[in-house]
Amino acid sequence: MKILVVGGAGYIGSHMVSALRRADCQVVVLDDLSGGHRDAVGDARLLVGSLADRALLDRLLGDQRFDAVMHFASFIQVGESVRAPAVYYRNNLINTLNLLDAMLAHGVKHFVFSSTAAIFGEPELTPIDEGHRSAPINPYGRSKWMVEQILADYEKAYGLQSVCLRYFNAAGADADAGLGERHDPETHLIPLVLQAAAGRREAISIFGSDYETPDGTCIRDYIHVMDLCDAHLLALRHLLSGKGSARYNLGNGLGYSVQQVIDTARAVTGRDIAVRREARRSGDPARLVADSERARSELGWRPQRAELERIIADAWSWEQRRHAADAVDPAVPLAA
What is the pLDDT confidence band of residue 327, given thresholds at 50, 70 and 90? Predict the structure, then answer.
């Protein structure tokens, strides 16, 4: 298979590139490097460019015969999307539409889309299955939900087949491959906690300790990035075997609280982690946990790294590797 991975130099995209290459796929990466890193793609072919550049897309898709396109090129910060919605709608929606139109113009009709649990907004029930109503509460979630609706319309009108994968909380790393989270700024809980453990930040903030949960802190569903990649490979095979479009929620179905994450990180790292307790943030639901039974039954997906200890241990290996490299030469980045 020959696969175009857009956004393949970022956190999840780079892990996907590595997984595709292990599966003997030919991979071409398109990334503007606004959030990704050149060295993250290893020796895969990297083209530096934007999805906004239709001429570039026409040349790329016209010159090579891709079996499918995998999309990881969205902006992902909820707070930033509220402050700068135009940026999110332009990149996440308009640029994706540009890509889809270029794909159709060159006969590429299989698309795997990195979506999000943010399309559901405030959950009415948990665990959240695919039948849960979609009512995103921020521009980030709305931009992803709009793309999902466009994909449904494009299938009816043009025959474009797609699989949308709604992530819950991606975490973990493949430190042996030199891959892990390196967002700037970092907003995800587990790497923030581990930065505190490593002394790269003073403390970790807990926003709200009075939720209706066993320890009062929010509960989230964390999924190992390599288990996500396994789901993407299965989704790709699903499409290319002619099974048609689908939508899947991806999580472990196991909820862990913020306090549990911190306590587990203390145990894994053997380090003290200072905590600041702060007021709740607006829009933070008490629980977000996935019902992934459809992915399990239809794709045969089985997460292999579901335990919180494993997720944190792999992320800690990456954090230590990155911290050691920065100490030697802060100008030399590792892959993210």
Answer: low
